[in-house]
Structure formats: C-alpha cells, structure tokens
Amino acid sequence: MVAQNVAFWIIAIAMVLSAIGVVRTSNVVHAALYLVIVLAGAAAQYILLAAEFVAWVQVLIYIGAVVILFLFGIMLTRSPMGDLDLDNSQRMPAFVACLALVGTLTALLVDAFGNSKVVIDAPTKTSVLSSDIFRLYIVPFEAVSILLLAALVGAIVLARRD
Amino acid sequence: MILNQFLILSAVIFSIGIYGVLVRRNGVLVLMSIELMLNAVNLNLIAFSAYLKDTSGQIFVLFVITIAAAEVGVGLAIILLLFRNFRSPDLDQAQQLKG
C-alpha cells in the first residue's frame, strides 16, 4: 500500500507539472512532448488501478497514434517555431475560471467521498473485459465502429484539395 | 489508496485543460488541451471502476479513447482547412461570422 501511494504521488506530480507545461510552453513541439508525459502518466495510473488492458490501449493509441497525428498537424499547419506568444489576452479570466473549477470540484469530492478506500485484490482479466464488450456492450461497440469509419471518411473529404 | 486522490488529480488536470482551451490561440494546441480533459475523464472512470469493482468503467474508457482518436482526426482536418483559407493556424482569424 505504501509503495503504491509513493508511486501515485510521483506520477501525479509529474502529470500535473507536464499538463501545466502543455498549456504554458511557448514552443508547439514541446507542448506535444509534454502531452506524451501526461498520457504515459495516465497509463501508469491505470496500471496502479489494476486496469492493465486499458493501460496498454492508452499507450498504443494515445502515445503511438494521437501524438504522431499532432506532430503531423504541427508540421502541416507550419506552426511558428521558437519562442512566440501563443496565448490570447484572456489569461487572467481563464486562470480565475480554472481556479474556481478546481476549488468547486475538490470541495464537492471531499464532501462526497471523504476517505473511501480503493481496495485492489487482482488485476482485471482481459478475458472478462472482452466478454463484457461482446455481450453487454455489442451495440455501442458496433456504433463506435461506424463512427470511426465516418470520421475517417469525413477527415479525408475535409482535407483533400480539389 | 483513497478514491479521492485519483478524483482530485483528474479534477486538476481537467481544469488545466480548460485553461488551455480558453487561452491558446493555435488550433493544434487547443486540441491538445481537449485531449488533457478527455484523459482526466478517463482517469475518473477507471478510478470508479476499481472502487466499485465493475468493469463497465474500463469499457467506457475504451469507447472514449476511440472517440478521442476520431475527434483528433476530424479536428486536425478542420484546422488544416482553416490554415489553407487564412494562412495561419490561429483560431482568432476565423471571425467572418462575427457581426
């Protein structure tokens, strides 16, 4: 339990600092690299919570595919490199809104869940997960497949030049 | 481990994502902030799945990851189109519908 808590805090601090890096850095490519740290940290938290399969899906799809897509986006839009001001003039109001949201959510969560413990006895078996997907959630699964196809066709239609 | 440490971490990351969406001008950076928010939600779902010993949360995370991938694909196509029309990836440029 102690080892898990130490791991949690190390990963949590790394995640929060990198998330701040994503929204504060003045270099677009650095933002993508900070995003990788946040996504990897989330995968590590999933492993701490005994969700192995989801953790590896996170690594494969997010770190493997989505970040590469972002880097291609940066390349194709010729985003300016070097230290530039990438923010608009709403810094102060946005910061106040962000702080208010953290405060409200934290107060609500502490009030609602207090010291409820997460007890983990064994990692979730992938076979359990897959039989649930293909029995209980087969209709959403098929719907998501159609959505993915539609998004793919839509992206090609939008981005092609003619 | 208590449940709240995961929930509060995800609340903090979600709020940082909100800050990014409100403040950033570059469209690609706005999409990255949206990814931060989606990840915070996923962490929440997994924490509740472990707390309630119910696999539904993990299955919903798989769906959210799929939809996030689709969203990034379409979002980047839209930003590419914006770049072609305005010669800049900044979202502030797109204000032709403003009265």
Automatic annotation (TrEMBL), chain A:
InterPro entries associated with the record: NADH_UbQ/plastoQ_OxRdtase_su6, Nuo/plastoQ_OxRdtase_6_NuoJ
Transmembrane residue ranges: 6-24, 31-49, 55-74, 94-114, 134-159
Key word Aminoacyl-tRNA synthetase present: no
Keyword annotations of the record: Membrane, Transmembrane, Transmembrane helix
GO MF annotation list: NADH dehydrogenase (ubiquinone) activity
Keyword Transmembrane helix assigned: yes
Name of the protein in question: Unannotated protein
Organism field: freshwater metagenome
Automatic annotation (TrEMBL), chain B:
Membrane topology term: Multi-pass membrane protein
Keyword Transmembrane helix listed: yes
Record's subcellular location: Membrane
Transmembrane segments: 6-22, 29-52, 58-83
UniProtKB keywords: Membrane, Transmembrane, Transmembrane helix, Transport
Example GO biological process: ATP synthesis coupled electron transport
Molecular function per GO: oxidoreductase activity, acting on NAD(P)H
GO cellular component: NADH dehydrogenase complex
Stored HAMAP family: NDH1_NuoK (MF_01456)
PANTHER family hit by this protein: NADH-UBIQUINONE OXIDOREDUCTASE CHAIN 4L, NADH-UBIQUINONE OXIDOREDUCTASE SUBUNIT ND4L
Homology family: Belongs to the complex I subunit 4L family.
Designated name of the protein: Unannotated protein
Organism: freshwater metagenome
Organism lineage string: unclassified sequences, metagenomes, ecological metagenomes
